[in-house]
Write a structure and sequence with these properties.
- The complex is a heterodimer of chains A (249) and B (420).
- Chain A has a domain of 53 residues.
- Helices cover 64% and strands 0% of the residues of chain A.
- Chain B is an all-beta fold and 420 residues long.
- Helix content of chain B is 3%, strand content 42%.
- In chain B, strands 1-2-3-4 form a four-stranded antiparallel beta sheet, with no helix packed on it. In chain B, strands 7-8-9-10 form a four-stranded antiparallel beta sheet, with no helix packed on it.
- Classes of the chains: A mainly alpha (249), B mainly beta (420).
- At the A-B interface, α1, α2, α6, α11 and α13 of A face β6 and α2 of B.
- Chain A: It holds the Pfam family SERTA.
Chain lengths: 249, 420
């Protein structure tokens, strides 16, 4: 069992030799403990396979702990040794947003599947993950609204990597069957958009997908571009938001 | 019986409401004193049981919305009926609990069993009369306040104007009028523009007992903000900010987690407020923001076990706290079904246990002690023997008398001061 994190000993000249020796001995075990704590925290944050929304307070506290450890490890210089540089910053981003964590590695840059759509399909009765074709046809109808919303979305995430995701998203929509834009406009004219402010759009970020989404997402392979995690999430939320409007109308 | 998730006395203390994980509310009523049965004074019996919330499924997010009752708050009684607010993660409901002890008999158009009478059988006109019947307690939902919270509601608090109330979730606080269900005003919003920058959430909120414009909310970083609704419509700027400076010598990776405030309660006087964090209870003077005036260690022996408690998630347990009627004593729960009371002036504290084994009806509770040193005395319990599954998160104190309600998982215990 671990005890609470040891306070780092400070190696300045004022320490007596005994203290310094003790400090040197303490460091490996302190690093080990710290690493274990980091691993434990990451595991806790990864618990996304739940039907109920995870406790936001708990997630934020764990994420803060992870950040604290990472900051200390970065100062130590041990961060680079233990963790690959490419994933370091990105994984922090991934963890800090208490987002759907099971989404993170599977569903972003490709953007080939928008998880939320399946459940919005009105003909779709069961809770099972939708088959791709159904999802795609639903997705096609929101091509126009996506463009309408894209300004807002861009405001939210002025990050350079979003372009990549945006492109893949565009490609997907192009390949889909286009419904007549007029019908979509009609849908929109009836909906009071004022309710759907940024908050609702970003709401999707906080939600946790259920297993079904993760399962269906697995059919779309490809490793993640971890740097674009955050952008991808917002894109998906953007789409969530659009589908919310569709359902509401 | 389901796990009890909230306990609350009403303003007179005659009624005690409990909410559970299954969405049910059970209300107990205090028996009237009867000279023939002096020992029955203070006994609470079931008065009403009803299903307040049902499980829901949020189709947009593909998530279940738990029916667990997070909080119950009574409204002051204004007529024969009783009203309370109960909330789960997303929806607040106003319930009316009323008694019916009479029924009308002698209708013209229908029989006693409700069947319509044949018209030709109605030969005379009579006035229905009221006859006594067995007491029936009915609970009916009068208002449903829904769709105003994106995140999980952790607190509700009735304002001293008895017309409005607030509901708080992890990132926002809304103000409602009890009569209006289709509109609520957002008065606090700490959601960052970019959710990835989120580092702090709201953990509890409460209205001041006397000043209807003042409320406080606590955060996961151990801070309390007092807001005045007169200053602006959106109270993102606090009027007062309460935070105790961190003790650098006790800093660890768990410092922030254990500083997270799980409950905040104003004293009845309105002069003080009490906050509960993982290891301690602090009393704050509203006039002094830089540190609490009193700090009580609830279970300091857990400080060396924080890593284990982090591993098993116990470190995230949200304990509540409460004042007694005169604000002289405060109470809060701990593990192993222990709960603690602290007498502020007398500087006395006691640890008691709520369990079937150690408390028979009418028996006096024996003080408990947790052994912190190596040598365990008789009757002491070692820290490693504590059962961390038996946690007392919810307690309530009668508004005027020394009667306390303690929820131990799925059992409710009521204790009262022994009167000779």
């Amino acid at each position: 069992m671990f005890v609470r994190g040891l306070k780092r000993k400070c190696f300045d000249g004022e320490e007596d030799i005994e203290g310094t020796l003790a400090g040197i001995k303490a460091i490996p075990s302190y690093n080990l403990q710290r690493q274990s704590l980091l691993d434990m925290s990451l595991v806790k944050l990864q618990l996304c396979h739940m039907l109920v929304e995870p406790n936001l307070c708990r997630s934020v506290l764990i994420a803060n702990t992870v950040r604290q450890i990472q900051e200390e490890m970065t100062q130590d210089g041990t961060w680079q040794m233990i963790n690959t540089p490419s994933t370091g910053q990105a994984s922090l981003d991934r963890l800090v947003s208490t987002d759907i964590l099971c989404r993170s590695s599977r569903d972003q840059a490709e953007g080939k599947h928008v998880p939320a759509y399946g459940t919005f399909n009105k003909d779709f009765e069961s809770d099972q993950p939708p088959d791709s074709s159904e999802t795609m046809s639903t997705a096609s109808s929101v091509q126009t609204p996506r463009n309408l919303q894209s300004n807002v979305w861009e405001m939210e995430n002025p990050q350079e990597n979003k372009g990549n995701f945006q492109k893949s998203l565009d490609q997907i929509f192009e390949t889909l069957e286009n419904k007549s834009p007029n019908s979509v406009e009609d849908l929109f004219s009836e909906v009071d958009n004022s309710y759907y402010d940024l908050d609702t759009m970003l709401t999707g970020m906080m939600s946790n997908t259920k297993m079904g989404h993760c399962d269906s997402l697995e059919t779309f392979s490809s490793p993640t571009n971890t740097a674009s995690n955050s952008n991808c999430k917002s894109d998906l939320n953007d789409l969530d938001h659009i589908v919310e409007i569709l359902v509401e109308s | 019986a389901d796990i009890i998730s909230t306990v609350e006395f009403n303003y007179t203390g005659d009624l005690l409401a409990t909410g559970d994980k299954g969405g049910r509310v059970v209300i107990f009523q205090r028996e009237q004193e009867a000279k023939s049965r002096p020992l029955s004074r203070g006994e609470y019996n079931v008065y009403s049981t009803f299903q307040s919330h049902e499980p829901e499924f949020d189709y947009l997010k593909s998530l279940e919305i738990e029916e667990k009752i997070n909080k119950i708050r009574w409204l002051p009684q204004q007529n024969a009926a009783h009203f309370l607010l109960s909330t789960n993660d997303k929806t607040i409901k106003l319930w009316k609990i009323s008694e019916r002890d009479k029924r009308a008999e002698g209708y013209n158009l229908k029989d006693e069993d409700g069947r319509l009478r044949e018209p030709f059988r109605v030969t005379e006109l009579r006035v229905p009369t009221l006859k006594p019947m067995d007491l029936m307690v009915e609970a009916s939902p009068r208002r449903t306040f829904a769709n105003a919270h994106t995140y999980h509601i952790n607190s509700i608090s009735v304002n001293s104007d008895y017309a409005t109330y607030l509901s708080a979730d992890d990132l926002r606080i809304n103000l409602w009028h009890l009569e209006v269900t289709n509109r609520s005003f957002n008065i606090v919003d700490i959601k960052p523009a970019n959710m990835e920058e989120l580092t702090e959430v709201i953990t509890a909120a409460e209205f001041h007992p006397h000043h209807c414009n003042t409320f406080v909310y606590s955060s996961s970083k151990g801070t309390i903000r007092l807001c005045d609704m007169r200053s602006s419509a959106l109270c993102d700027q606090h009027s007062k900010f309460f935070e105790e400076p961190e003790d650098p010598s006790s800093r660890s990776f768990f410092s922030e987690i254990i500083s997270s405030i799980s409950d905040v309660k104003f004293s009845h006087s309105g002069r003080y407020m009490m906050t509960r964090d993982y290891l301690s209870v602090k009393v704050w003077d509203l006039n002094m923001e830089n540190r609490p005036v009193e700090t009580y260690q609830v279970h300091e022996y857990l400080r060396s076990k924080l890593c284990s408690l982090y591993e098993n998630d116990c470190i995230f347990d949200k304990f509540e706290c409460c004042w007694n009627g005169s604000d002289s004593t405060i109470m809060t729960g701990s593990y192993n079904n222990f709960f603690r009371t602290f007498e502020r002036e007398a500087h006395r504290d006691i640890t008691l246990e709520a369990s079937r084994e150690s408390s028979k009806p009418r028996a006096i509770l024996k003080p408990r002690k947790v052994c912190t040193t190596g040598k365990r005395k008789k009757d002491e319990i070692a820290v490693d023997s504590l059962d961390f599954n038996k946690k007392i998160l919810h307690t309530a104190w009668h508004p005027t008398e020394n009667i306390i309600a303690v929820a131990a998982t799925n059992n409710l215990y009521l204790f009262q001061e022994k009167v000779n």
